[in-house]
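To whoever is on call:

I kicked off a structure prediction for a single chain this morning and the downstream step that reads the tokens threw a length-mismatch warning. I double-checked the sequence; it's 653 residues and nothing unusual in it as far as I can see. Pasting both halves so you can look.
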Amino acid sequence: MLKRTIYSFTFLLLCFHAAAQKQKQVSSQALIPHPREISYSKGSFALQTCKVLVVKDASLAKEASFLQQLLLQKGINTHAATKTPAKGPYIRLAVSSAVKEKEGYKVTVSPAAINVEAANSQGIFNGIQTLKQLIKADLHVDACMIKDAPAFSMRGYMVDVGRNYQSLELLKQQIDIMAQYKLNVLHFHATEDIAWRFASKRYPQLTAAENMIRNKGKYYSEADVKELISYCKDRHIIFIPEIDMPGHSAAFTRAMKTNMQTDSGVAIVKNILTEFIDTYKLPYFHVGGDEVHITNKNFLPEMIKLIQSKGVKTLAWSPGGNIDEATIRQLWMDDVGRIEKSTHSFIDSRHLYLNHMDPFEGVTTLFNRRIGDKMQGDSSMLGAILCLWPDRRVEREEDALKMNLVYPGMLAFAERTWRGGGLEKWVANIGSPGEERTNTFAEFENRLLSHKKRYFGKLPFPYVKQQHLVWNLYGPYDNGGDVVKKFSPELNKGAADVAKLYGRQVGATIVLRHWWAPLIAGAIDPVAKENSTWYASTRIWSEKGGTQNFWIGFNNISRSPATDSPPAGAWDLKGSEVWVNGALVAPPAWKRGGEKGHPEIPLIDEGYEYRAPTRIMLKKGWNDVLIKAPIASFKGKDWQNPVKWMFTFVPVD
């Protein structure tokens, strides 16, 4: 048995339960993002008795239709009216000068009526999304008053379809989820070294199959792009296309037989931009501009001038090429930052890449994140864009969602960008038991899991409860570079080494030291060192005993670099191990054990979230878990194989 010191595990569980119960008293519905102001009163509105939807403003016709369809899906048929009925329950949508914020709204629910008010149709749409979440299983809506508005004006999601094509059906699924959680920007990265996926009437060779490396012949026609733009517009989402230039343009070079920065390349790109902008008439255009050697210093300034001359605002990656003052800078790695000293406008995408994140670490860090290092947006910091860069080829298009925390991450991101706030720096771990930040995260996780059950039953949602796991961390033990070397927790069959108890951490994934340390904090950063071994212990309760499924992992492989597969017969290259009730848990029989990574070889079972769970026999009552996490060097053999010192262990249904 594992000995417990200082606090009993049962006491910790009771603390978490009490915190959760306290949060339940604050609101009767799990809302994401949580509104700025909400208060509940007695009674409820019975939707099944409502037959009238009052809409006086013609500008709200689409929103009224959207709400009617939502209600019809629940078996409630309403007819539109311009006058409020003398009696009987009704729902009313109204433009109101009382709501000042552009995207703000007010929802008032009484037993007699539901009123959704806003300054414009976008605010009304946001209010309807909140109303949707307020509807309970019995088709009642608790009486309440909500006043709400976002902290940041731009709350976006970027999908890279240049490397891995996605069908309109899958894109629309993601757009629907964006709209449900009040994200308002779709950043569409559609040209890459791999393929160019925007159709061009003038240069059809750009999308010819022979000029593509993956998904050959797959591209977006003019009709496709217009359909996506319309679909976004109906949901108050701004469609921002990106033609990356002059870098990430090998597909252009293959098709046009010239580099973008040559005189002939400049002329072709200008023709492409003119055709694209005149065809789609969009308010924003992203020029890329990153990760390239600029040989023609006039290239980006000329392209930006052309785009802006047509009344279109420009965005570009920062750091990147030479761009003008008016272009919005999208931060991707400028971690020191120049935000406070600059007159530019910024969008934050630093450490907001889903393909680099473990599901549990990712939800945690996104929830904790302080966008642009500011509590709320202003003219300098407009907001943030969450990015999906699955550079490595995926076998099936839906794998991009299964292998990345797209939906759980999107919800955590939506919460933070709408509400603002967050913690200083970048925080990947939940925290210690009893910490304010730990309790705050637990309250959000309760809402997140409620939404998973309610809205994502048939969609990929790689996340399960983790707030109940409390780990004792023991170390450091000097292993002298021998990761196999055994120390007291292992030699004494899991008995606690009180002298080496470093602290406690909550969560399914514990990041001991991140590959981007010290930028991203790990659980043991102050004492983390090479050639050391750490142990972690916890207990799992089983009501009846029997076989249980677990997610177990020791290295979350990014879906961006071509990282090698785990070695055959081991969990990882670091010598990590796990025991349950003293029995060693065998690693998976990897399908590609030890295989060298390659960008064109899709991942298959390297991540716990997309392989079959590990099945472990538990006894009735408490079960003891011991993790061994040794390390030799913080340096991987190359940049494709960074060392992320971490472990994941969590029961799954």
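Update from on-call: the warning came from a stale cache, not from the record. Cleared it. Sanity check on the structure: Residues 289 and 469 are 44 Å apart (CA to CA).
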